[in-house]
Amino acid sequence: MNSISKILVANRGEIALRVMRTAREMGIQTVAIYSDADRNALHVRYADEAVNIGPPPSSESYLNVEKIIEVCIALKVDAVHPGYGFLSENAAFAKAIEEKGITFIGPSTEAIEIMGSKLAAKEAVSQYDVPMVPGVNHAVEDPNEALEIAKSIGFPVLIKASAGGGGKGMRVVEEEADLEEQMERAISEAKSAFGDGAVFVEKFITSPRHIEIQVLGDKHGNLVYLFERECSIQRRHQKVIEEAPSPVLTPEKRQAMGQAALLVAKSCNYHGAGTVEFIVDENLDFFFLEMNTRLQVEHPVTEEITGLDLVKEQIRIAEGLALSFKQEDLKITGHSLEVRVYAEDPTNNFLPDIGTLKTYKLPQGAGVRVDDGFEQGMDIPIYYDPMIAKLIVKADNREAAITKMLRAIDEYEITGITTTLTFCKYVLEHEAFRSGQFDTKFVDKYFTPDALLKDDITGEQIAAALAFELLESEKSSTLAQTKSSGSASKWKNRLKD
Ligand code: ADP
Ligand code: ADP
Ligand code: MG
Fold first, then answer.
1. Which of 84, 112, 235, 383 has the most ligand 1 atoms within 8 A of CB, as the residue to mutate?
2. Which pLDDT belongs to residue 482?
3. Under a CB-based contact definition with an 8 Å cutoff, are residues 361 and 264 in contact?
4. How far is 455 from 118, CA to CA, in rounded Å?
5. Ligand 2 pocket: which of 279, 291, 440 to mutate (most atoms <8 Å of CB)?
6. Residues, CB-to-ion distance under 5 Å, ligand 3
7. Domain boundaries, the chain
8. Which residues is 159 bridged to in the sheet?
C-alpha cells in the first residue's frame, strides 16, 4: 500500500476539474498547473494549490516535463494524474515521474510503450486469439511492398501512422494508382506530426462501427471489463457522440468482446483504467484496432451505467489496492449518452470557432450531467483542443435517454461562439440514429450543413430573410446564380447579426 495524499493533475479544462472533484471526495489534496492562457481557468480556482508553468503553447507548458516534475518536488506531491491527451500516453514522462519516487496514476511504462505504438500493440496481441483488421503488423516503407500487401488484402486500404492518435495520421487509398503518392505523404506527415515515420497498411473497412471496451486492472493481476461504449458518430475519425450500452450488441457478443479486451490487456500486463478499441462490421464481426492506456474522454457513459467512479478506481489501483469487485458483480443499469460540445461550426466543415462565451447557461434536472471547464464570460483559448464541455444523460432505456438529451440540448444556452450542439441534435433526431442502424460514415451519408440551417431557423425568419434577399437582388441588376447552400448560409449570417 502506497497511500496518496496529494495529487498534481497534469492537464487542464474539464478533465482536470473532473479528476480534482474525485480527489477531493477521497480527502486528497490537489495541485493544478496552468499556462498563461489559463490564469483564470476553473481548474486553477478549484485546486488547493496552483502553479503557473509557462506560456500558452502546450509545448512550453502542459508538455513541459521538467517543469512539471520541479513543481511535484517543490510541493511534495505524491502522485500525478495525467488526464487524457497531453502527457497521458507519454512513457518517458511516466518513467521520469516514477524515478523521483512519485506515483504515475496509470499503467506501467512498458504497457504505455507497447500500446502507444499501433504496431507494437498488434505484435503483443498476436500471441492471443484476438481478431485483427487484415493487414500487416510491421512498418512498411517500400511502395512496392505496400502494393503487394494492398493487392493481397484488396482495396480500399488504410495507410496508418503507427504513432498516430486523435484521429490523425490516416489515409484511405481507393485504388492502386494512388498508393505510392499517398504512402509518401503519410510517411512525411507521420514524421512531422508524431516524430515517427513508421506507417503500415490495413484493410479499410468501408462502413464499420466503432465499439470499445473499458477495462480495469489492479496490480495483483485482477482484470475486469466494464462493458462497451458505442462511438460510431465521428467527424474526421474523431468521436462526437458516444453511448453505453451499444444498441446492437447481444449479450453473447458483449461477452466475446469483453474477453478479447481482457486478452489485449493481459498482453501488456495492464493495470489501471484502459480502453480496447474495436471496429465492428455489419455481421458484428469485431477486429482489434488499438488500446488507449489512459482515461478516455467518453468514460462518463460507463460510469453512468455501472455506478462506478473511474477516477476513484484509478487512484485506488495506483495506491496498490485490489479491485473491490469481480466481473460477476458488474451489471449494466439503464442507458447513457454523451455529446461532446466542441467550439466548432458544423455548417462550416467543423472548423474551430473560438471566442468569448457571451451566454453560457447549463441544462439541469435529474439524469443530466455536464463535465466542463468554463463559465459565462470566459474566452475559449485558441491553443488547445476546442472541446468546451461534455453533456451526459442517463435514463432507463435508450429511447428515454435520447428524449432527455434532446431536452437538455434545448436548455443549453451558448452564445458568442458556434458549437456542435445543433449538429448533435440533428443526429439524435435522425431515423438512422434512432433505429440504431448507423456506422462511422453517418456524417458522410446523412449530414449536410443545409439540414442544420433548416432546423434552427423558423419559417417566419426564413420568410423575412427571403424578402430581404429579394430586395437586395432587385437592387443589383445582375441575376446571380446562387447555390442553395450558399444563399442559406447568407440568411443564417443575417439572422445572427
Ligand atoms: P478518446 O480517444 O478519449 O475517445 P480523442 O481521440 O478525442 O478521445 O483523444 C483525446 C484527446 O487526446 C484529444 O484532446 C486528442 O486531441 C488528444 N490526442 C489523443 N491522441 C493524441 C496524439 N497521439 N497526439 C496528439 N493528441 C492526441
Ligand atoms: P486513433 O489513434 O487516431 O484513435 P484508431 O485506430 O483508433 O486511431 O482509429 C480512429 C478511427 O478511424 C476509428 O474509430 C474508425 O472510425 C477509423 N478507422 C480506423 N481504422 C480503420 C479501418 N481499418 N477501417 C475503417 N475505419 C477505420
Ligand atoms: Mg482510437
1. 84
2. 35
3. no
4. 41
5. 279
6. 277
7. 6-105, 134-203, 209-450, 456-494
8. 171, 201
421 lines ligand 2 (CB under 6 A): no
pLDDT for position 321: 98
The share of the chain scoring above pLDDT 70, in percent, equals 91
Measured in Å, residue 115 CA sits from the centre of ligand 2 at 15
Who contacts 364 (Cβ-Cβ below 8 Å, separation ≥6)?
Answer: 411
Using the 8-state DSSP alphabet, how is residue 135 labeled? B
CA of 164 from ligand 3 middle (Å) equals 9
Nearest atom (ligand 1) to Cα of 242? 4
User: Which CATH number fits the domain 209-450, given the four candidates 1.10.10.10, 3.40.50.150, 3.40.50.620, 3.30.470.20?
Assistant: 3.30.470.20
The reply to whether ligand 1 has any atom less than 6 angstroms from the CB of 377 is no
340 φψ region: left (φ > 0), alpha (ψ -120 to 50), beta (else): beta
Is the confidence at residue 466, as pLDDT, over 50? yes
Residue 228 contacts residue 261 (beta carbons within 8 Å): no
Active site residue 45: no
Q: Of residues 171, 209, 229, 294, which has the active-site annotation? A: 294
Which mutation among 200, 203, 210, 264 tests ligand 2's pocket best, with the greatest number of atoms within 8 A of CB? 210
User: Which overall architecture, per CATH, does domain 6-105 show?
Assistant: 3-Layer(aba) Sandwich (3.40)
Q: Which residues lie below 8 Å from residue 275, measured CB to CB, with a gap of 6+?
A: 212, 213, 214, 215, 229, 291, 292, 296
Q: Which residue has the cell 442517463?
A: 394
Shortest-distance Cα residue to atom 16 of ligand 2: 237
- Cell 447579426 maps to which residue? 497
pLDDT in tens, 224-235: 999 999 999 999
CB of 290 closer than 6 angstroms to any ligand 2 atom: yes
Per-residue confidence (pLDDT) for residue 1, from 0 to 100 = 74
Return the percentage of the chain with pLDDT > 90, whole number.
Answer: 88
Q: How many whole angstroms from 341 Cα to the centroid of ligand 1? A: 15
Q: Which of 339, 78, 74, 67 is nearest to 87 (CA)?
A: 67
End-to-end CA distance of the chain: 60
Q: Rounded mean pLDDT of 475-492?
A: 37
Distance in angstroms (rounded) separating the CA atoms of residues 159 and 203: 9
Q: What residues form DSSP beta bridges with 352?
A: 344
> Residue written as cell 468554463?
374
When the pLDDT of each residue in the chain is averaged and rounded to a whole number, the result is 92
Shortest CA distance to 427 belongs to which of 321, 346, 494, 311? 346
CATH of the domain spanning 134-203? 3.30.1490.20
**Window from 120-124, 142-146, 321-325, 487-491 with minimum mean pLDDT:** 487-491
- Compute the chain's Rg from CA coordinates: 24
Atom of ligand 2 nearest to the CA of 206: 25
Which ligand lies nearest the alpha carbon of 200? Answer: 2
Is the bond preceding residue 156 a cis peptide, omega within 30 degrees? yes
